[in-house]
Automatic annotation (TrEMBL):
UniProt-recorded name of the protein: DoxX-like family protein
This protein's UniProt keywords: Membrane, Transmembrane, Transmembrane helix
PANTHER family the UniProt entry points to: DOXX FAMILY MEMBRANE PROTEIN, MEMBRANE PROTEIN-RELATED
Record-annotated membrane-spanning stretches: 12-32, 70-91
Source organism: Solihabitans fulvus
């Protein structure tokens, strides 16, 4: 596969992942409300919608070649920013069934590859 096509597919995949995640924030907000850290000011639903909009914005920026470089950087920042919510979700799952705990704890190390992917999309834009 030629390098330009590979880079475009990588960017499209990241945009699709972010876009789907953003849509889910609006389709099933209660699931996201539960993982908003209590230390954040305001209502969890506002943070759910704001983070959904952020994901959709990053997806749109990555999807457009002209803004892909900025979109990759913003997506990397977003993946780092949502890490505390993933930690909270993992901690909250301590008394849940093993399968649920494995899923929530398994998400934690995925943040680094997502950040790396976003930065790679930025670099190759």
């Amino acid at each position: 596969m030629e390098p330009n096509r590979s880079r475009s597919r990588s960017a499209a995949g990241l945009a699709l992942l972010l876009g789907a995640g953003g849509v889910l924030h609006f389709a099933i907000p209660k699931a996201y409300d539960r993982v908003i850290p209590r230390a954040l000011p305001g209502r969890p639903r506002a943070w759910t919608y704001a983070s959904g909009l952020a994901e959709l914005g990053c997806a749109a920026a990555i999807a457009v070649p002209r803004t892909r470089r900025l979109g990759g950087l913003l997506a990397a920042w977003l993946f780092a920013a949502i890490f505390p919510a993933n930690v909270k979700m993992a901690l909250d799952s301590r008394n849940k069934p093993l399968k649920h705990r494995l899923i929530t704890y398994g998400r934690l190390p995925l943040q680094w590859p997502l950040i790396t992917w976003a930065l790679r999309v930025r670099k190759t834009a």
